[in-house]
Amino acid sequence: TAMRDIAGDVSLNPASLYNYFSGKQGLYEAVLERGLRPIIELLDSLACGGFAPENLDGETDRLISSLAHRPHLARLLLHESLAGGEGLRRLSSRWLRPLYARALATVQEGGASSPWREDELPLLLMAFHHLILGHFALASMQQEVFDEDPLSEASMERQCRFMRRVVHLLVHGEVAPVPVQGRPVERTIFEKQRGA
């Protein structure tokens, strides 16, 4: 895609676009930064708030909500991973290595109750990466297989509840209990927005 096509899609003069970005790579990196910045901020928030269940639940919901508002971010990351090469090296050195270093430090700091060995922590982070981003990166396949929109409000609520349980398993080695009928459970961020 040429810069003039991109400019045309957003009703800009191509010269105007070059006032902000040096070229397609600059624009692409700005898109990635805009998508990855909230994830880094969430990790910082988690590091400050600790690994109490309510912190984990809230931050998990915020991460999923952030990705739900930018579902193409997961696809861009998957594309770079599959393509390899210079783009992946730039993405990795600028964003992924620092992001994973921060995530690893966060998990290590909260790891007193963690059932994972030190050498398993990178695998743990990659498993989380696959689960959380895979929902968005592979949404079209999921829709074809299960005949439901994985980005619908109901699917996102279910994904939040599921990922809360997964995060408890990954961090504490035990699955958060399934809510029992009649017992209050913390609503997901999507349920709160809807007023449910």
Any overview of this molecule?
By secondary structure, the chain is mainly alpha-helical. It is 74% helix and 0% strand. It contains 10 helices and no strands. Helix 3 (24-49) runs parallel beside helix 6 (85-109) and helix 4 (53-69) crosses helix 9 (153-172). It starts with a helix and ends with a helix.
The CA-CA distance between the termini, in Å, is: 42 Å
User: What shape does the CA trace take?
Assistant: globular
Q: What share of residues is helical?
A: over 70%
> How many separate helices?
10
Backbone CA Rg: 19 Å
- Mean pLDDT equals 82
Question: What portion of the residues fall into strands of 2 or more residues?
Answer: under 5%
What is the N-to-C order of secondary-structure elements (H for helix, E for strand)?
A: HHHHHHHHHH
- Largest beta sheet, briefly? none
E-strand count = 0
Low-confidence spans: none
Judged by helices, strands and strand pairing, the structural class is mainly alpha
Search tags:
single chain, 196 residues, globular
How is this fold's topology laid out?
Blueprint: H1 3-9, H2 14-20, H3 24-49, H4 53-69, H5 71-83, H6 85-109, H7 121-137, H8 139-146, H9 153-172, H10 189-194
Q: Gist?
A:
With 196 residues, this protein is mainly alpha-helical. The protein has helices at residues 3-9, 14-20, 24-49, 53-69, 71-83, 85-109, 121-137, 139-146, 153-172, 189-194. The model has no long low-confidence stretch (mean pLDDT 82).
